[in-house]
């Protein structure tokens, strides 16, 4: 290392405040807001309808969130690098059908599980490869593959549910059952949120995703493997749809080619509510999970207030708009200087 | 016709223009020249109504006028063809010629009326294209002509051409200057801004020179000036000779070499070598090819002919390969090509080693990365801490942050592209000091700059480029702004 500039009196000591720089600020910036909204909302509904707070209800809200929540956590990766994956809903349905067909036709359930995960990761990677090598926007590629996947599922299942599965198999009893009174899927959801948070915030891969989303040109100049990272991010988001499909199949014990319609948009909405902007560069896996929980909680609360079920979609739209507007507003108040100054 | 005088414009305490003026008569091509930052573009923007002056007057035919915006200037008959192409590639020639809708009735545009209006103008400029061709299918030169057509369709009295030939190949440029003269003969007043001094001598009847926001040569007859005298006027009294260059041993061993490198449209048979410990400057007017050399070294421009060899023998085929082979690319475009503005200094300063080369493992230790950043902050005297967001740093410190992320990867070759663009004097001097230290340390340094003083201050030698070739090399004591400016302008105007 060269000596560079010689020291002189009165030199600025860069990072004097650095060692004390509190971790809570970094954390506070991104997730505390959504978590607070969820807690306040749940407490607020509980004030009027105490039965809303019963553990059974809260657990069922969480369980309902798991499938779309897993996809939301996965979709944070493409979103943070300014890509989008619209194929997760179709992927979810197709993987479920494929798993059900394999099991029905006598393949071992655990082998079928591996096949479902491998297929989803592979097809996610195909999304990424087509996007990269055909130089198309991921929006268009995954819009097309969403239909390909769902169509393949429909054709494979002949448009019907696949039901005659060995329901006493450990695959269904363990993965579709409870552990310590909580659905296995919920435990796995919690574990996946933690694992993906570490992957997103602490690893080289996560940092590459954020770097490319923040400034793609600078990333290219810095020698980052942009193409490979994009393929990996879309593969990961496909894989999470596969994980959701595994637990969905285990719980419902049927392969239904029509499930998960519009899940991709709910997952994206959850990620955005949770603080992953479409502009890329940032994101939060925890936020995405909490964002999906908020959407489920709102839907459930409407039932408690005896709002007709058909208003749920309307309410969901309202929640998304309010959440995103509030987030932007708060950001502007906290950080009045526009970036780039 | 057009007379601007005593124009003053300040940008936050800095005077961009300070008593500048220009007079353009009907029937003449009046050239305006000056160094980068001399105030040419500010002057043009004031005359064309996009910038309001802090002081001074503009007269048209003896009547004082004030423009609140570009539309008002256009209404007074001032048309401008700006430096950047402003064509809409997806639209047709006709649609480009009538951006505000064109002739027609009831809000419907009449294609036939547009064709009727456009035909004579297209013919006059010798633009032989179908009026229904999509503009992106046209050559660059034709698009430039199209812009002039658009300006002419406004039936202007004053036509401003801002660097009209900088993006054009030689022949097209010659044709354009010929057209310009013809338009002036037809009675138009043409204000012609150009970097190319030889071209100015051919096209203009009179010339004005701006230096540091002042008009230092006002409407001189073209027969009374030469490239030499224009350069002297642009640079002024350059003061005492630069301080003696520091002695530095040029290390042998591994070097960077280009052999017969050709990049279509940018470089032709360029060969050069740079050894460790050398600071080699690359100079040229816009489009001369000096920047293509940096692109070739950084793996961004794939040579069609010849080869680029990095120290160690690697041939860079992509930016990623170049980075892996130890090439650093420090761009003056720090916001576009340098930094992740929304991320912290430590994330930026460790980006190349951590993310590009991937040398810090799959789960890098944040503490160690921050420590490394602190050392870089100290070494480069960055005013900011590791946790500061890059967007919050000043321009000079952002530029140092770009340098930091490359030094973190310990490169063998450092390519700098306008490394102190828009940076304050203090930071600029510090950057130069650092670059010299890096050379002492045995790095190979290539530097391109629009700022000639910068090249004179830091380089051991400067290669001068014209039209894709190396045309001159200025070494050591002979290196001065004057010599560079002359070499950049020399000889590409075989009188036609």
Structure description:
The complex is a heterodimer of chains A (341) and B (496). In chain A, a hairpin with a 2-residue loop joins β1 and β2. In chain A, α1 packs parallel to α12. The radius of gyration of chain A is 22 Å and the shape is globular. The N terminus and C terminus of chain A are likely disordered. A two-stranded antiparallel ribbon of chain A has the order 1-2. Chain A is mainly α and 341 residues long. Chain A has a single domain, classed as Orthogonal Bundle (ABC transporter involved in vitamin B12 uptake, BtuC), CATH 1.10.3470. Chain A contains 13 helices and 2 strands. With 496 residues, chain B is of the alpha/beta class. Chain B folds into 2 domains: 234 residues, Rossmann fold, CATH 3.40.50.300; 235 residues, Rossmann fold. Chain B is built from 18 helices and 21 strands. A 6-stranded mixed sheet of chain B has the order 6-9-10-3-11-12, with helices on both faces. Chain B has a 6-stranded mixed sheet with strand order 17-18-19-15-20-21, with helices on both faces. In chain B, β13 and β14 form a beta hairpin. In chain B, α4 packs across α5 and α8 crosses α18. The radius of gyration of chain B is 25 Å and the shape is globular. The mean pLDDT of chain B is 88. Chains A and B meet through α8 and α9 of A and α10, α11, α13, α14 and α16 of B.
What is the fold's blueprint, element by element?
The complex is a heterodimer of chains A (about 350) and B (about 500).
Chain A: H1 23-48, H2 55-80, H3 88-104, H4 109-133, H5 138-157, H6 170-175, E1 178-179, E2 182-183, H7 184-202, H8 204-214, H9 216-221, H10 226-252, H11 263-273, H12 285-304, H13 312-334
Antiparallel strand pairs in A: 1-2
Helix pairs in contact in A: 1-12, 2-7, 2-8, 2-10, 2-11, 2-12, 3-4, 3-5, 3-10, 4-5, 4-10, 7-8, 8-10, 11-12, 11-13, 12-13
Chain B: E1 2-11, E2 14-24, E3 29-33, H1 40-47, E4 55-60, E5 63-65, H2 70-75, E6 78-81, H3 93-97, E7 104-105, E8 108-109, H4 111-124, H5 140-153, E9 158-162, H6 170-185, E10 189-193, H7 197-203, E11 206-211, E12 214-221, H8 227-235, E13 255-263, E14 267-275, E15 279-284, H9 290-297, E16 305-309, H10 319-324, E17 327-331, H11 334-338, H12 345-349, H13 351-356, H14 366-380, H15 395-407, E18 413-417, H16 425-440, E19 444-448, H17 452-458, E20 461-466, E21 469-475, H18 481-489
Parallel strand pairs in B: 3-10, 3-11, 6-9, 9-10, 15-19, 15-20, 17-18, 18-19
Antiparallel strand pairs in B: 1-2, 1-4, 4-5, 7-8, 11-12, 13-14, 13-16, 20-21
Helix pairs in contact in B: 4-5, 8-18, 14-15
